[in-house]
């Protein structure tokens, strides 16, 4: 089995290709470090405690949202509804607390449950209804946002103390950052250790081979979207906690940030490839760029241009990485 | 030969990371000659021809065309020099038509628009050359592997190449299509085209080859004429001789209990009214021409496709149609005909691929049993001699024959007792084939049952206790091992043969 290995003469490692490969494999991480160093040099405001905490809080929403999307993308689908689902979940939670008078912690659970349910609907539509996930979740993007507006009548609703706690600090540490770390551990555990998680890679890599191996592909897809909805709800509650209220226009367009974070983190939109650690880095890249551009007084119009370019570069790295692998 | 070779790989080497796959090999391709490459799975044959095709660039050595050193940085550069390649793994676009695939990259246009008539006509001509009778407008994804292979061949033939490289083109073909292909090869040879040919069917070598370069572990170990006797070729290739190609004993105990029962199974357009039984310890071979419905039948039994009527029963338990999970739970394993499209998750590791069928059944509280999985995978990789440098390497980077063994290995790990094998040894070398046959014997000796479909008739005849012959979706007859001869099978398979369905 290893005869080729033993007979191989000690190859002189070609330093250039090794460096190229490391850069390609860890492009997002290298990019993040370069970015931070550049900002550190460019502005004294970057490396301050307050700014870093600020970054931490902002990353938490994007990253938690993106964890759910990571599951979906690894399984070969896409979820465009997470931003709307985040808003809907926090709104439902707020409504149960403020209008229905449910205890705060039950209201929080209701929010999470809302995300889970919308995810299940997405999953059923794409696994059993055979809708492409792009279409199913595009529809949900609109439906969930609409329901949010219906429930709130277009006005913010105050949140329960339990949800507000999600936006507070424990000592010097913002709760969202703690939630981020816990969510990352859970997501990574699900993806790497559980049967469902490992199956996601198979389903995304080659659905037909997965099916012919006896994996319950449809059930796995429903689980994947359900998880995505659940993480979206959590992100929505984090956001609401920070503002002490559920906003009808919360998280508009966040689905694109989430997808960008996942892709920058090295996942392939073709499915079968992706990691939670990559997604964390991807989310950091996005947030740090935005933060840096703010500190440098670049207008939000130009920020969009820059973010678009970063996504293009990240995907370019992905292509390069594939080439060094197979070539 | 003193004549200048069309193409030479001169002392080329190739490594992937720390692993040297081809080392210091020289190959010449002469005009009007067929250079055969021979070697075990993973010996480096495909890697070598990928250096001719511009897919890989050699780390050491040179590529010469007409005696002049050239660079082949990409596939296009090779094509420009008149090198056409049929790769071992098919490279077709399933959602496009046959015609579009055949003419890929050379779609004829008029006023900037696709000239459909010309497209169809040229594709038709290429297909006729190899005698493939399919609708040029059919979707390639709807064709079986054999026909896809023929489309791939037609595609390579339709470019006017000076050098044609064929990497295991006959692995999925039955004798009839192989003969068609060889007729074309003979014509090309007469026209002065230089060819490279790879096959694990040793009888084909003397038939169309001129010289044979034997590779072992990436080294060239011998260059011999193609007329060299087969057992000598085997000895050169594996370093030992193989006593018995088909080590099947005298068959099962006559009274073994019934394991698989198929009754009145029908599926419109594929097969109709199929009934048979398989007993414990038995190997049932299914023979027939390409398009006779053998693959569709196996898929239906395995739960991969639904069917219109009939039942499948395993050990008295009726299987739900179209439910692979239920079939797997009942002990059914299915090796599909196309390992790349249906068998493997190419970007996942060898370890993962070997474990998909047992992922859930070995888990504890929904958590994957990583240690156990690795142990089982390493063990079966050893039994099947899957050649790799690391069980965590992506299965994509294994050689074709070793990928095939990985699909088989999944069901060995699962301990499947009813194995449905569709081309189980496609692309597997002679030595490893015997190991797969031994495994088949071990499974049947342990009370398992096997249904085997193969385009290689000698394999079906050599390994089956009973042979069903299918024709146009129906059972044309059943032969006992004693009655089953090539002639008897072919007579049943072709009698009153209707024009082949597209
Ligand atoms: N991209 C790659 N990365 C790592 N190893 C590779 C890669 N491509 C090929 N190999 C290794 O190189 C060796 C030779 O592979 P190759 O495909 O040339 O074998 P082959 O002679 O064509 O075998 P087969 O008869 O099975 O087709 C194998 O051990 C394979 O695992
Ligand atoms: Mg090969």
Structural commentary:
The complex is a heterodimer of chains A (327) and B (502). Chain A is mostly helical. Chain A has a single domain, classed as ABC transporter involved in vitamin B12 uptake, BtuC (Orthogonal Bundle). Chain A has 15 helices and four strands. Chain A has helices spanning 3-7, 15-25, 27-42, 49-74, 82-98, 104-127, 133-152, 161-165, 175-193, 195-205, 207-212, 217-243, 254-264, 276-295, 300-326, and strands spanning 157-158, 169-170, 173-174, 245-246. Chain A is globular, with a radius of gyration of 21 Å. Chain B is α/β, with parallel strands linked by helices and 502 residues long. Chain B has a domain at 7-238: Rossmann fold (3-Layer(aba) Sandwich). Chain B is built from 17 helices and 22 strands. Chain B has helices spanning 45-52, 75-80, 98-102, 116-129, 145-158, 175-190, 202-208, 230-238, 294-302, 324-329, 339-343, 350-355, 370-383, 400-414, 430-445, 457-463, 486-494, and strands at residues 7-16, 19-29, 34-39, 60-65, 68-70, 83-86, 109-110, 113-114, 163-167, 194-198, 211-216, 219-225, 258-267, 271-279, 283-288, 309-314, 317-318, 332-335, 418-422, 449-453, 466-471, 474-480. In chain B, a hairpin with a 2-residue loop joins strand 4 (60-65) and strand 5 (68-70). In chain B, helix 4 crosses helix 5 and helix 13 packs across helix 14 (400-414). Mean pLDDT of chain B is 91; it is low at 497-502. At the A-B interface, helix 1, helix 10 and helix 11 of A face strand 2, helix 10 and helix 11 of B. Chain B: It is found in: Cell membrane. Chain B: Keywords: ATP-binding, Cell membrane, Membrane, Nucleotide-binding, Repeat, Translocase, Transport. Chain B: It holds the Pfam family ABC_tran. Chain B: This is Sugar ABC transporter ATP-binding protein. Chain B: It comes from Goekera deserti.
Largest interface: A-B, 33 and 46 residues
State the helicity of chain A in percent bands: over 70%
CATH topology descriptor of the domain at 7-238 in chain B: Rossmann fold
Mean pLDDT of chain A: 89
**Rg over alpha carbons of chain A:** 21 Å
Q: How much is the average pLDDT of chain B?
A: 91
CATH superfamily of the domain at 7-238 in chain B: P-loop containing nucleotide triphosphate hydrolases
Order of helices and strands of chain A: HHHHHHHEHEEHHHHEHHH
Low-confidence stretches of chain A: 1-13
Poorly predicted ranges of chain B (pLDDT <50, ≥5 residues)? Answer: 497-502
CATH class of chain A: Mainly Alpha
Tell me, what's the shape of chain A? globular
Assign the CATH topology of chain A. Answer: ABC transporter involved in vitamin B12 uptake, BtuC
Q: Cα distance, first to last residue of chain A? A: 23 Å
CATH architecture of the domain at 7-238 in chain B: 3-Layer(aba) Sandwich
**Main β-sheet of chain A: number of strands, strand sense, barrel status?**
2 strands, antiparallel
Number of E strands of chain B = 22
User: Proportion of β residues of chain A?
Assistant: under 5%
Summarize the biggest pleated sheet of chain B: 6 strands, mixed
- Oligomeric status: heterodimer
